[in-house]
Amino acid sequence: xxxxxxxxxxxxxxxxxTAAPTAASNFIAVYSLAxxxxxxxxxTDVFRLADDRYSLVSESxxxxxxxxxxxxxxxxxxxxxISNNTLAPSLYRRIRSDNPxxxxxxxxxxxxxxxxxxxxxxxxxxxxxxxxxxxxSQLYSFLFITNLPEKMVVPIANGKxxxxxxxxxxxxxxxxxxxxxxxxxxxxxxxGPGQKAVSVWINRDLPHxxxxxxxxDDGVRMEQKLxxxxxxxxxxxxxxx
Length: 241
Known about the structure:
By secondary structure, the protein is mainly beta. It contains two helices and 17 strands. The chain has one domain (2-231): Clam (outer membrane lipoprotein receptor (LolB), chain A), CATH 2.50.20. The protein has helices at residues 2-13, 137-140; strands at residues 27-35, 38-50, 53-62, 73-83, 86-96, 103-109, 114-119, 122-127, 133-134, 151-157, 162-171, 175-177, 180-182, 184-189, 197-203, 210-217, 220-231. The chain is globular and about 45 Å long.
């Protein structure tokens, strides 16, 4: 089923050079979430396309015994357009259900080349650099790239700051997950002292879905791994400007 779905997405992506992506590219991806090797919960990402607009919504929640202690969810969403075969966000939000006051929002004004960053209801503005992504869109910005670059420099806006991520591509052995076995390439952040170490393993062939993500920060290793994926999301719902 998954390989059939990949084939359908490949056919839709082949039209990007001359037309907008089609609804065949819509999917729900579910990831396990672990901290230092101990499973914490589940991340569900919903990706939709309508014409040249995308909508990406992610929810993280605890599972198993931890669900009794961590009953809330972390909700992320990114909305924008497809530009130059990658995502161009217009709006990003992060909300914790157990503490809504601790929230982040980023508004992207590409015409004015201006970012509005809002963290805990405190807003400020910065200049907007070409290729800037948000915390969520960065993981899916590979989807539509036909030729994966050896190196990438990606500014990431998270509501509080804008950080520059310099990625280098590395070869990787195939990854086996509950969703199947995947030929992947690794993009590894060239992190300096005090910076988060980030590795993203993406499907080698189109569509370049994120299969595994690892973040190491201050000795804590957080890891997401794809467990299942399914197509058929309604493209007309929740695709915002």
